[in-house]
Every structure is written in C-alpha cells, then in structure tokens.
Amino acid sequence: MKEKILIAEDDKDISQIIELYLSSEGYEVTIVDNGLDGLNAIQNEQFDLAIFDIMMPEIDGFKLTREIRKDSNIPILIISAKSEISDKILGLNIGADDYITKPFDPLEVVARVNANVRRNKSFNELKNKTNNVFKIKNLTLENDTCRLFKDDLEITLTATEYKIMSLLMKNPNRIFSKIQIAEHLSGEYFEPYAHTITVHISHLREKIGVDDNGNKYIKTVKGLGYKIESN
Question: Does the keyword DNA-binding apply (predicted)?
Fold first, then answer.
C-alpha cells in the first residue's frame, strides 16, 4: 500500500511541484491550501507524513504543528521562507521532525521525506519487538512501549528523540558523532542534519534535566559527538 503524504501549502506552484516529485516516488499525495483544512485532514485520515508551510491562512504551520502534536507522532516536515535559525529551532522544538527553507531543491524534499518515513516505520516496528529494558542511573528506556522514564515519571518524546535516546542508552559510554546519529535515524546524512541533531539533543536535555548530582545525562565530547555515561 502506498504511503500517504499530506501537503498544507497555500502556494499552488510549490505544492504541485512537490506532489509531482513525491508521486513519482510512489507516494499518494493530498494537498490542502490552509492550516485549518490541514488539521481536519490529519484528524480524519491516516497519513504517513505531513509537509507544512509556516505562512498559511486560517492556521499557520507553527500552530498546526502544536495542535497535531497533542495527539499524533506523525512525522512533520516544515518548508518555509523563514530562514532564521530562531525559526528553525522553534519549529523543531514544537514538534517538527525536519525543516527546509525556500527556495529548495525538490530532490532534497524527496530525500527528507524518504528518510523521515523510514525513521517512523522503524520506530513503529520497534514497538512490536520483544521487551527490552535499558537503565542508566534513574533513566529507564522500555523498548516494547518505546517510552522513557525518569524515576517513575514518564518523559514524552517524539519518534526522533526516542531513537536518539535509544541509541545512546543501548551503547553507554560510546561516543556518537552527528553523522552517526543522523545515519542511525534515517540511513543517510545531509549537511543540514548537523544543526538538526544539535537542536534535538538540546531539546532532549531540556526534557530529561540533570541527574542526582546535577550533571547532564547527555555529555558533549568536544569535536567528537555525544554520549551517555553509565555511571
């Protein structure tokens, strides 16, 4: 069965060119031209990934992402003319999985869509695997339910955040570069992923806080990457 992609974009030329490229890759594409219709589509249909513009009528892409994240972990790719780092960070922090600025190469959009769809598939497949529990300090990672706990408090993670924590907690004390983390997430690496990984790590640190000694769980090893120490 074809994977279904939702595009919420008020510029018909842009939405149609993305549809053309995605359809050629075998995706089934639905297009809406405002954020409210995008929200209704997500609530009434099953999609494998959503692509949102930021500046849209009715509901903008940021508000739309926030609303969808209340109930869904569907991968969200934001495409926007807003190229400031602050806009990218905001988009990722409110729940987007990826962010591309206009103008863009349609082939890059296809590559990002492929990567995020694969990532979400592997995340869902992981839910069905045999139970494995990984514990580091007072963090507990449950593979069967894809949930993270700090003591008895569950920490809500996106699929991307969970996969990063899973990689680090399953391999304590091992240093992973941004390239290795990106390849673990999607099987490939693009230069813009470097900043995306940094933002995801920062967001994870905010969510899990510090250990009983006041130290960050995720350590930065300058010039090399990131790790979680076992003690």
Answer: yes
73 and 156 housed in the same domain:
no
Kindly state the helix (H) or strand (E) to which residue 148 belongs, with its residue range: strand 147-150
β 147-150/153-155 pair status: antiparallel
Tell me which of 103 and 51 has the higher pLDDT: 51
Give CA torsion, residues 104, 65, 84, 118, to 10 deg: -50
Contact yes or no for 62/90 (Cβ under 8 A)? yes
Rg (CA), the chain: 18
Same-domain check for residues 134 and 208:
yes
DSSP secondary structure letter of residue 156 = -
Query: What pLDDT, on a 0 to 100 scale, did the predictor assign at position 197?
Result: 84
* Residue where a domain stops, chosen among 79, 97, 125: 125
Q: What global pTM score does this model have? A: 0.60
